[in-house]
């Protein structure tokens, strides 16, 4: 969608307006000067470059990767680990249909006892609200203030029909939510008209511009709404594995208006007062969900004490929220890290989730956590994990800095050309080629890999992983995916490569493939053993006859030895005396 063919980035393309080209007109805001620039909220004690450098060594060194060199950095996920990921991906799939979860089946087939969900919390809060309203309904009539236009929302010319900026934000988020929910019907492949393209362009333009360029009081109002315990941007449910004292918190991805409010408020702010920056919308949403989940954390701790374990997992936005809530529990000292034998917080497992922190690996080191505490599973061509971690074109970065001062001092954007960096371990999932074409950097066929650096060869392994991951996240680049009209619609690659069901099916396919390989190996070993037993039986019979009948049959043994089958005698554990006697007669003849 973006063609860097002009420096000013303000001209129309020959066919229609793409949304980035339209919003780049806002570049004039910066060049003409701002009267009241937004104060930066990301001053990290003057350590901007260090924040980025410590995280991933933000050098400009480039390493070219092809399939052969990239594959050397891949380690197949073991079968038992893959099975645990299959279980969590299944729970992530259930999170999109919580009301249809069969609790008896969940317990019988997966050993998990359903505890509660955000749907139950909403029902409880609705009941409380109805009770409160009923008790206060006799307290007098309302003033009708909801229909009054506030003075600050009036136009200077006295026109009272002006829509407030906060309402405009709600409309923008609603438009984005509408666009997401209709990805199966708009921009169908083969549609030659540009009507739908224009609609998507307008929605995306207005959504991004309204949020990024909104005033601080508007964004704070939205942040307060996300932070509220009255509503969750994403639905979630909780279940227990009583055998291991593990409580699972499973969070779904973007499905509601509130989730898109969180998505669009993506400016950086400090995390928990630390020198780490985080996606503001997701952070605010996590705060509200944290308060809702805290009683469930405390009740599990009360029941199992130091043996209580907690597992957070989720898909898309839900995976990012799982990560943030997990780290909040650690930073605030509510739950310790799992040390391996006792209780505590188990590693976060996120499927298809966008990166939301700048300085994430640095935070893990500061908290004394291994990189394995955060495990991100990314489909080979999924656009969502790439959204904030791909290289941003210069004019897009300039636009963000022009309309929002917080982006001007964002280390990841200034030094690595992306908004937020990956943290923890990076796992790549590739489905069967019948579902989606193999990635150019991955071995052909389905596979599940951990990106690692087993042989440093004198280089920094962390830096090698960082460069390799960056190459993967930019291939294909999100703009390349979006520019393909076949990416949209019910059979489009965007929906296909990000859908939770695709993750679940792909993990199961990898497991099935590995089990079939193991079965073939067992069959081959069994067949080889049968051949050895058959030949060994012939040798044993021959040795007995040979000892009784003398030299004529020992010639047959010599012939058998020269054929290379003598080792079968040892396998059959022939008594040592017979073996020595036979060898003596063989040499004699």
UniProtKB/TrEMBL annotation:
Alphabetical keyword list: Hydrolase, Membrane, Transmembrane, Transmembrane helix
Q: List residues of the Fungal lipase-type domain.
A: 249-390
Membrane spanning stretches: 566-587
Q: Which region ranges are annotated with the description Disordered?
A: 123-160
Superkingdom is Eukaryota
In its UniProt record, which GO terms are filed under biological process?
A: lipid metabolic process
Q: Which InterPro entries match?
A: AB_hydrolase_fold, Fungal_lipase-type, PLIP1/2/3
Which GO molecular function terms does the record list?
phospholipase A1 activity
**Per the database entry, which stretches of residues form a coiled coil?**
none
The biased composition feature labelled Basic and acidic residues covers: 123-135, 149-160
Q: Which Pfam families match?
A: Lipase_3 (PF01764)
What's this protein's name? Fungal lipase-type domain-containing protein
Q: What organism is recorded for this protein?
A: Genlisea aurea
